[in-house]
Amino acid sequence: MSELFDAVDALIASASALPPPAERERLRKAHGLTLDQVAGALKVRRATAGAWESGKTEPRPPQREAYARLLEKLAALYPAAPAPASGPPVSVPAPQTAAGPAAVPRPGAARVQATATAPARSASTARTSRPADTSRRPVAKKTTKEPAPATVDPRFENGPLAVVDVEDGKVSAYCVGGLVLDVPAKSLPALVDWALNEARLGAPRLVHNGSDADPLIVLTESACERYGLPVRLSQEERLSGRLPEGHKVIKQLERADWRLTRRGFGPWARIYRPAQGARRNCAQLCVPSWDALDVRHWNGTALLPPAELARLLGTYATRVMTPRGSTAVTGLELMTALHPPTRAGEPDETGRRHSEHNPGSLGKQAVECAPCEAPDGHPLLAHLPRFHQRTPAEMLMEEAYDWARPLTDDECLKRYLVGIDVNMAFAAGANGAIVGLGAPTHVTRPVFDPKLPGSWLVDLTHVATDERLPSPFTPRGNRPEGPAWYATPTVAYAVELGYPVAPAEAYVRYENGRFLDGWYQRLRDAYVETMADLGVTAGLTPAGFLTAMDGYRQRDPQLAIVLSAVKATVKGGIGKLRERPHGGGWRPGEPWPALRRPTWRPDIRAAVISRTRVNMHRKMLKHAAATGQCPVAVLSDCAVYAADGPSPLDFLPYKDGKPLPGGFRLGVSPGMVKHEGTQTTLWAEAVREEHGPGLNLARYLKDGHVTATDNGE
Q1: Average pLDDT for the chain
Q2: pLDDT tens digits, 670-694
Q3: How many of the other CB atoms lie within 10 Å of CB of 75?
Q4: Are 529 and 47 spatial neighbours (Cβ–Cβ below 8 Å)?
Q5: Can you tell me whether residue 213 is helix, strand or coil?
Q6: Cα angle at 591 between 590 and 595, to 5 degrees?
């Protein structure tokens, strides 16, 4: 009977009543509490507590019961003022400002969609109200502008971005939180000017030495037509990635003294005027109908109604950063935003501050990579014969796993193949990584130092590993056949396994640091917070986690897209550290534009991938030592095991609810694992018989459908 009572108590706690959002904020402030204090007491992050208070998200058990109890006790201490008695309307004076009574909105001023209960604004941001026409499309969940929290920067009170749309001749800007502004701009140059000077769009800098985020203007198809832009790019324009230089809108911008960056007016366009002192004059434009939002990561986003598009992109912008291009580009921009290349130096004798190098950053200038780190076609390799195939002794080949082996007789007798996937594996690999910040130094016959980032030419053929496991030293899992170049984490793992190493030479970076830690932490928080919104929280039991993961993307498809974009930001950002040439016209041996970036750093990419692969091998080795089980296939961050049942719990060892120390652990945090998929061993035998014994089962385990013969690409 007590179990039934506990179940009833839990059911009641799961739906504990909460006061309206405005009352939650009033009660907290009445007691002089900060959001940080509330978050600390409830053991959640500040952003989560703020979302509960504003009503953007609702707390779940067990925090919901605790939060409700807090508000209940505060309500007893600070009861709300009684509502006024019914009677004739009372005249309320107009709000006063320093300049006098509230001003009438000037001609062309922006307006907000709001109800009569919306908070009053100061004269400088006064808006008039208009009804919203919701007959054509759905609107965001909130259709009124909520009171801005005290921490909101007044310069950016309307959020980081706006989706500009035209309906019945009326131009509107849909912002985060359900805010809708009227747009007075009649031309694209005027729209950029409005975004920078009137709309109060943008986001404050992420770190002290950084720059504020430029406002992002997203143009719908109707907005493109309104401002003289094509709804779709022509085939020639798609190939070039931009409008032709002579386009009428580009001429309009030039006449208004606006400039475009080197990439021109494409799906992501940056429009600016030279900075005036510390103030930037730059706005970012995004055109979804020009394929600005890659369907692989922003599935269906471009087709959303304006209010929903603003909500989705605004969530990403708030949790990661305002998009500056593709998710890969944004991943790189986030690295720079968290480690700006310069900072203000100490005042000189005249009191002026001058820009100086910011320690811990990659600086303003690109640095040359080591020859072994250069990809094929790099100018450093121009002396090589045209069709020369570089060997591991000539080229650093740190890549993710792509390995498979035949099933043993015992594994064939098991009924299922179960895949587990490491959450945010490359982000976890970046966490704590010591990477080079400057140019490499060539050293012959160095003494290996596991704390010194670089590339090492060393022979690891003497390191013995379990033949049922992939080698930790090669992407294909085969044992090294001779000396090869490795990143520091790979060589350090050989030392960790107890083997001596004697590098013949190395390219090391004495200037180094944990450049990616802040990047990891921001993306980790974005991932974990979005997963929590989808119902998957930290602290769940293994079985509870698997249950919560069942169908989690369907709970809020838009937030599921945000989650995909966050993960793509990690992988794309790491991949873009070694960006290859794009488009026609480039020839091997010639430089390409990416080489001019300080963030073109193949050595950092190699270090992160090396750590990710080593982390994977370390977990597989721990699992094998404890259970005798080895994976039958590994693809990047996914490992496939034979099991008697269809669940990861049928082969992952848990004792009293605790996972194997150092092994795989089910959970939501980066580095933990989730269920990737399950197929039968009969399926595996059938597809390998059809497509060849070398087929990597991990590639197709999720849905069981093999689209083409596996070639490892």
Answers
A1: 87
A2: 999 999 999 999 999 999 999 998 8
A3: 16
A4: yes
A5: strand
A6: 160
Distance from C-alpha of 490 to C-alpha of 509, rounded to nearest angstrom: 16
| Residue keyed to tokens 């952003």 | 47
Q: Among all chains, which residue has been given the structure tokens 């709300």?
A: 80
Q: Given pLDDT bands bounded at 50, 70 and 90, which one contains residue 7?
A: low
Task: State whether residue 653 is helix, strand or coil.
Answer: coil
Please answer whether residues 400 and 637 qualify as being in contact, where contact means their C-beta atoms are separated by less than 8 angstroms: yes
> Token pair of 158, please?
């309307």
Beta strands of 194-247 (E only): which ranges?
Answer: 216-219
Tell me the sheet residues that pair with 182: 172
Q: State residue 623's pLDDT score.
A: 97
Residue ranges of the alpha helices (H) in 365-418? 409-413
Hey, what are 90's tokens? 């009372």
The residue type of 145 is K
| pLDDT value, residue 33 | 86
Lookup: tokens for 527: 């991932």
Place of tokens 């109707």: 222
At residue 701, the pLDDT reads 94
Find the helix or strand (DSSP H, E) in which 461 lies.
none
**What confidence tens digit (pLDDT) does each residue in 635-683 have?**
999 999 999 999 999 999 998 889 999 999 999 999 999 999 999 999 9
Residue type at 248? K
Please, what is the end-to-end C-alpha distance for the chain in angstroms?
Answer: 58
pLDDT at 87: 42
Nearest alpha carbon to residue 672 among 662, 681, 680: 662
pLDDT at residue 672 in the model: 97
Q: What is the CA radius of gyration of the chain?
A: 28
How many Cβ atoms from other residues are within 10 Å of residue 393's Cβ? 14
The owner of tokens 């008695």 is 85
If pLDDT is split at 50, 70 and 90, which confidence band does 708 have?
Answer: low
Task: Quote the percentage of the chain above a pLDDT of 90.
Answer: 71
* Residue 675: closest CA among 549, 551, 554, 566: 549
Q: Which residues contact 98 (CB under 8 A, 6 or more apart)?
A: none
Q: Which own/partner pairs from 620-623 qualify as long-range (CB within 8 Å, at least 24 positions apart)?
A: 620/469, 620/470, 621/466, 621/469, 622/660, 622/661, 622/662, 622/663, 623/652, 623/653, 623/660, 623/663, 623/664
CA distances for 13 relative to 38, 52, 63, angstroms: 19, 16, 9
What distances in angstroms separate CA 448 from CA 310, 434, 490, 500, 508, one per listed residue?
51, 15, 12, 10, 10
The answer to whether the CB of 561 falls within 8 A of the CB of 554 is: no
Measured CA to CA, the distance from residue 178 to residue 516 in angstroms comes to 34
Q: Which amino acid is at 296?
A: R
In this model, does residue 88 exceed pLDDT 70? no
Give the pLDDT score at 290: 96
Counts for the chain of helices (H) and strands (E), in that order: 19, 24
Average pLDDT over residues 159-168: 96
Enter the pTM of the model. 0.79
